[in-house]
Amino acid sequence: MTEETPGFEEKPDVPSGATPDDAEPKAADASSEETAAPAGDANETAGLVAQLDQSRKALDERTADLQRLQAEFQNYRRRVERDRIAVKEIAVANLLTELLPVLDDIGRAREHGELLGGFKSVAESLETVAAKMGLQQFGKEGEPFDPTIHEALMHSYAPDVTETTCVAILQPGYRIGERTIRPARVAVAEPQPGAQTVKAEEQGEAAAEDSATKDNGGPEEG
Questions:
Q1: Among 104, 185, 188, 191, which residue's Cα sits nearest to residue 149?
Q2: Cα(54)–Cα(65) distance, integer angstroms
Q3: How many domains does the chain have?
Q4: Is the pLDDT of residue 186 over 80?
Q5: Of 176, 180, 158, which is closest to residue 167 (Cα–Cα)?
Q6: Residue 191, exposed/middle/buried by CB under 10 A (0-12, 13-18, 19+)?
Q7: What range does the domain containing 104 cover?
Q8: Using N-to-C axis directions, what is the helix angle for 23-111 and 117-132, rounded to 10°?
Q9: Is residue 44 in a domain?
Q10: Per-residue model confidence (pLDDT) at position 193
């Protein structure tokens, strides 16, 4: 039988050239790696969050640029459309202005009963085309004088008017929409000097007589 020598314990095998204390640093290194791993993941996550924030900021900036360009384009389109309409209106106004003497001749021929036959048909066709292009005639006898649309060529006084009035239309005026291309050329009459005072006195006397009649209980019966 083999007897164990008292006082000796078995120790784990140690590789040659190494001491038993080498096993403890290896365990410590493994623990350090496990601790460092979560810290590395946190840094990587923070970096991704920072990149995401930068991407969102860049997207917001590009979106704002796109919205600004879209607004500028819409303004450009509206400006071009407005300019196109203005150019068209100016061209139409210039054309119709050149036709006004012809329309005046047609009007005079109609007043003298000379608008007959084929000339009448052509004249009416021309007037229809001008109306379709937006030409409107204005100016009537008896309307109040308006210096913005009337041009006074003759002046007189009349006892039967209470304000400056167009008493004769020498040439009709023409407009396109709200734009006047020629004012109506008219003869105007103003109230007769002193007529308003006399009229006011007459009205005052009539009112006084009516009041006196009412106060006396009306006219006496015969």
A1: 185
A2: 17
A3: 2
A4: yes
A5: 158
A6: middle
A7: 53-133
A8: 150
A9: no
A10: 80
